[in-house]
Amino acid sequence: MAHIKPSSLLVVDDDPSMTRLVVTIIKRALGDEISIEALTDPAVARERIDKGGIDILLTDLEMPGVNGLDLLQCAKRRNACTQVLFFTGHSSQDALLSALELGAADYLLKPVDQQSLVELITQAHHRQQRWRQALAETWQRRKEAAAT
Predict the structure, then answer these.
(1) Alpha-carbon gap, residue 116 to 48, rounded angstroms
(2) Is 1 among the domain residues?
(3) How many domains does the chain have?
(4) What is the pLDDT of residues 123-135, one digit of tens each?
């Protein structure tokens, strides 16, 4: 890959202090590799996801109104390659299993361990980059084959 475009990360948690903490940790650790947006209203987050351009979604699982599973489904409908990560303080086994079945890449328990958070975001970023590269190469091969 000649130029690696930063992955776009959307952080969603109804607790503003949690979103600020997560954004600070990720910015400090990953700087230019990740472009970060943070929202505390999950309904607004769903609207943002519907607009597209989200590579990684890091969301609380349990929120009032629109929950993390709703955001996961929205993100995957918009772009199957979106890496969805959950962080949760209290969740049921059923909710975690549903997240896994719906395509979640991983999860963290609150309080969030900073090193684990950075590792998961880094892994999601690299996974996203590999998907981008694979798709770009596939499209290029198809274009070349059509030209011959």
Answers:
(1) 26
(2) no
(3) 1
(4) 999 988 888 888 8
